[in-house]
Amino acid sequence: MSNPKPFVLRWGIISTGRIAGDFVEDILLDPKTRDVVDVIHKVVAVGSRTAGKAQEFIDAKAGGDKNIKAYENYADVYADPDVDAVYIATPHTFHYEEALAAIEARKHVLIEKPSTATSAELRHLLQIAEQKKVFVMEAMWTRFLPLTQEVLKVIDEEDLGRPITLHADLSGDFHIDKLSLEHRILNPRLGGGALLDLGPYVMVWAIICIFEHSSNHNSRPTSISGLMLKSPLTGVDTNTSFTLNFPDAQAILTASINVNSISSFGCNVRYERGTVNISSPLYCPKEFTVKHHDKTGRTIRHVTRFGDYVGGGWHFQADEVARCIRDGKKESEIWSHQKMILVMEVFDEVRRQGGYVFPPGVEKVVSV
Ligand SMILES: NC(=O)C1=CN([C@@H]2O[C@H](COP(=O)(O)OP(=O)(O)OC[C@H]3O[C@@H](n4cnc5c(N)ncnc54)[C@H](OP(=O)(O)O)[C@@H]3O)[C@@H](O)[C@H]2O)C=CC1
Ligand SMILES: O=C1OC[C@@H](O)[C@H](O)[C@H]1O
C-alpha cells in the first residue's frame, strides 16, 4: 500500500536574526533525510521590522524562492491567509506580544525559548490560545532530538531506579566585554543574561530526567533557591545557579549557567543503580554514557551512545508542531503547556531571589 500524502505545514517566519535562519534552513531540508515521510514544511512568508531584510533573508536562507512573500513588518505575516503557523524568533521580551498578535489572528505558534519573559505573560497567552483554538509550543528543540529519545529509552530499559540528583551545567562565552550594550545577551530590555537564555536547557533535562520520571508522579518542585551574579555593565545575570527539590521523587536538581565561560560540564544524573552522563552542550548533546554500579558503587557495565543527523537539529521540533496541528491538537504532549509554565515559574522565582528586575515596561502582563 502506498503512503498517504504528507501533511504540509505552511510557515510564516517572524524576524530575520540568527536562529530564524537556522530554523528555516533546517525545515527546508528534505524530511526523508531524517526518515520523516508523514509531514513536510513550506516557508510561505517572512516578516522583518527592517526594509529589505526579509528579502535578503529569503535569498540567503531559502535560495531566493520567489513563492515566499517578504513583508516589511510582522503584522502582514499574521494577516496572510496562506500562513498556517508562525515561528517567533525575536528577542525574549517580544515573544509575548508577537505570539499574542499571531494567536489573535488565529495562527498556530511556535515560540523561541524562553516562551515569554514571565510566567504571567505565558499564562495569558495560553488562555487566549485556548479561546482562539490554536496550537502553541515553546521551541524546546532539545526535547525532540533523536539522542534525547534515546536517553529516555535507555533510562527505561536499563532499570536504573529512581533519580536522586541531577547536576546540570551550561555556559557560553559571549565575550560580553566586547558586546554592544544593546545586544540581547546584555540588554535587560531584551531579557538579557544567563538565566533566560541558557536556563531553558538545564530545565529541559530536569523535566526529562526527574519531572517526567514515574517516581515523581508529575509533581512540581516545592522549593526553589537561586543565586545570581550580575554584570556591572547592565545588571543582567552573567552567572546564575539554582536548586530545585522534587520531594515526590526524592530528587534534587542543581544547575549552573554562565554567559562568560566556554567550558560546560553537561549533565550528570545519579540514579539508585547507576548514573547517566549527558555531554555538553546541553542544548544539543552528541553523546551520553550510562553506567551501572553494584552495591559497593563499583561500575559493572557501561554503555555510550552517539547521536547524529542531517541538519542543525531544529527540524525535529517543527515535525512535532506539524503532527500536532494535523491531528487537531492544541498542545504537544511531549512539551506540554504544563511544562512550559513550570519552567517560567522557576525562572520568575530565581529572578526574584537574584534581584533581577526588568526595566519598566518590559513585563506586559503583571498577573494572571
Ligand atoms: N533554539 C536555539 O538554538 C536558539 C534560540 N534562540 C532564541 O531566539 C531568540 C532570538 O535570538 P537570536 O536569533 O540569537 O537573536 P538575533 O538578535 O540574532 O535576532 C533577533 C531578531 O529579532 C528581531 N527583533 C525584533 N525586535 C528586536 C529588538 N528590539 N532588538 C533586536 N532585534 C529585534 C530582529 O529581526 P528583524 O529586524 O528582521 O525584525 C532580529 O534580527 C531569543 O529568544 C533566543 O533565546 C537564540 C539562539 C539559538
Ligand atoms: O538557545 C541558545 O542556544 C545556543 C546559545 O548559543 C544561544 O545563546 C542560545 O540562545
TrEMBL record:
InterPro entries: Gfo/Idh/MocA-like_OxRdtase_N, Gfo/Idh/MocA_domain, GFO_IDH_MocA-like_dom, NAD(P)-bd_dom_sf. It comes from the Eukaryota. The keyword Chaperone does not apply. Pfam families: GFO_IDH_MocA, GFO_IDH_MocA_C3. Residues 9-138 form the Gfo/Idh/MocA-like oxidoreductase N-terminal domain. Its EC number is 1.1.1.179. Belongs to the Gfo/Idh/MocA family. This is D-xylose 1-dehydrogenase (NADP(+), D-xylono-1,5-lactone-forming). The lineage of its organism: Eukaryota, Fungi, Dikarya, Basidiomycota, Agaricomycotina.
